[in-house]
Amino acid sequence: MTRLLVPLLLALLWLLSRLPLPLLAAPGRGLGRLMWALAGRRRAVALRNLELCLPELAESRRREIAREHFALIGRSVLEYGLSWYASRERLMRLIEVEGDVALAERSGRPVMWLVPHFVALDIAAVAVQLFQTRPVVSVYMPASNPVFDEVIRRKRLRFGGGRLYSRFESARALMRSVREGYGFFNLPDMDFGERDAAFVPFFGVPAATLLAPSRLARALDMVVQPVVAQALPGGRGWRVRFLDPLPEFPSDDALADTARMNRWIEQEVRRMPEQYLWVHKRFKTRPAGEPPLY
To answer: For residue 284, is it within any domain?
Structure first.
């Protein structure tokens, strides 16, 4: 991204954030349909993931889920500016919160929010800043453009005064922040390769899955609270569910904990399959000797 494009993109996001949310829904879905038509590689990844994860569904149903998923991605693109530019009051009106959002405030132990990659993921990050007072720390993938990267860091933490570390940084700074009282906003379901990971079933398919949620929670005596974000139909906003903490998590078996975490994510995916991030190559890394799946 060139330096000229960064201010233009930010101006566009700001302009879109001024529009009523229902007004963005239809053109957002239209953008998603265009993406479905033009983004052949990502379309193929989504369809392959659905074939691997939900083979019991008819091919026509899996294709229907994928098309709806692209429509929701298109919506999320046009809605993205709200999380960066909309007022606190407006966002609090648009975000429905369910469950024990204030758990982290009352807990005498550090809290890890376990947040899978659904299309409204960024709204979950906003919700943990707006609806409770514990400061937030998280890990992110830096943007290649340093100017845009700095904007991302600033905007993602604009309500809570938290901290954001690159995934390439040492975990020591993250652990220090947790010990200082920060809640950890953890995204556990991406394929980052074999380092610090194990091949754990995800919908029955071995998937390289980070062991860090279990290991960090055990090392820091953390309460692990799942959080799931959902885009509501018709541009009505979003729902963020703060679920009950995972009982007896972590255990002394990180591999068993990670398998249990994946089973919980599977359960949430089946509740709203159109909203899970199927365009990510979740099974890119394969066990030694196995052929690629994409």
So the answer is: no
How far is residue 119's CA from residue 110's CA, in Å, rounded to a whole number?
Answer: 27
Q: How many domains does the chain have?
A: 1
- Summarize pLDDT for 142-184 with one digit per residue, the tens: 888 888 888 888 888 889 779 999 988 888 999 999 999 999 9
Phi and psi torsions of 230, nearest 5°: -135, 130
Asked whether residue 292 is domain-assigned, the answer is no
For 188-237, what is each residue's pLDDT tens digit? 999 999 999 999 999 999 999 999 999 999 999 999 999 999 999 988 99
- Decide if 103 contacts 171 (C-beta within 8 A): no
Cβ-proximal residues to 100 (8 Å cutoff; 6+ apart), any chain = 225, 242, 244
pLDDT in tens, 36-46: 999 999 999 99
* Amino acid (one-letter) located at 271: R
Q: Residue with structure tokens 């429905």?
A: 96
Domain holding 250, by residue range, is 5-275
Rounded to the nearest 5 degrees, what angle is found at the Cα of 266, between the Cα atoms of 260 and 268? Answer: 110
Round to whole Å and give the CA distance between 254 and 120.
Answer: 28
Residue 82 located in a structural domain = yes
User: Has residue 43 been placed in a domain?
Assistant: yes
Task: Please choose, from the candidates 16, 283, 273, the residue with its C-alpha nearest in 3D space to the C-alpha of residue 119.
Answer: 273
Residue 246 has what DSSP assignment?
A: P
Using DSSP, state whether 132 is helix, strand or coil: coil
Backbone angles phi, psi at 113, to 5 degrees: -90, 120
Torsion, CA 256, CA 215, CA 105, CA 133, rounded to 10 = -120
How many Cα atoms are found within 13 Å in the side-chain-facing hemisphere of 12?
Answer: 10
Question: How far apart, in whole angstroms, are the C-alpha atoms of residue 265 and residue 77?
Answer: 24
Which residues pair with residue 99 across a beta bridge? Answer: 242
Query: Is this prediction's pTM over 0.85?
Result: yes
> How far is Cα 234 from Cα 23, in angstroms, rounded to an integer?
9
